[in-house]
Design a protein that fits this description.
Layout: H1 2-5, H2 10-18, H3 24-42, E1 45-48, H4 50-58, E2 70-74, H5 90-94, H6 104-111, E3 115-120, H7 154-162, H8 178-182
Parallel strand pairs: 2-3
Antiparallel strand pairs: 1-3
Length: about 180
């Protein structure tokens, strides 16, 4: 079943949880296995919160429309208090910067029932159109690893396109979702 799960979108995965055909933990474990298998080549996920995600999947989850669906958050904005937030910056990464607030968006994502597995690679402060920060290294396009998935939502895009997760956070101020979608 695990291979089939990577082909399902977030709505289909949520329906499996809702109808009790699969548990949130099974979805989370499947996504973690995909990340562990694919990320060494793609470098899409730069911070993992796998054990926290597993604990959340075993517990009481918000009864939102995406209850139990694994998710990745772009490492730029959309912060959760107490969790790392490097924004692709070596300075923030090397100084172990953590977010002091949970943004409204992060709270709404959680309330929708998504289970965050970690942070996806992003260029430093989202300033360029490729996901190649010095802090974390380049993310590779899953369709051709010699190419970029573009940016600044390149890590999220590569994670979804490769089947690590069905959905991930992205943001766009000047093409940051549109460029990866085209790549």
């Amino acid at each position: 079943m695990s291979n089939d799960l990577s082909l399902l979108d977030a709505c289909a995965q949520a329906e499996l949880v809702r109808t009790k055909k699969i548990s949130p933990l099974e979805l989370v474990d499947n996504a973690i296995a995909a990340i562990e298998r694919l990320n060494p080549t793609l470098n899409a996920v730069v911070w993992e919160r796998f054990e926290k995600a597993r604990e959340e999947a075993k517990g009481a989850l918000p009864d939102g429309p995406f209850r139990g669906v694994p998710f990745l958050t772009k490492d730029l904005g959309c912060t959760t208090a107490g969790e790392p937030d490097s924004q692709g910056s070596r300075f923030l990464k090397n100084n172990h910067y953590t977010a002091s607030v949970t943004t409204e968006l992060a709270g709404r994502i959680r309330a929708a029932g998504f289970i965050n597995l970690g942070r996806a690679n992003s260029p430093e402060f989202g300033a360029v159109a490729t996901t190649e920060p010095l802090a974390w290294g380049a993310t590779r396009n899953p369709w051709n690893t010699e190419r970029t998935p573009a940016g600044s939502s390149g890590g999220s895009c590569a994670a979804v396109a490769s089947g690590m997760v069905a959905v991930a956070h992205g943001s766009d101020g000047g093409g940051s979702i549109r460029l990866p979608a085209a790549a």
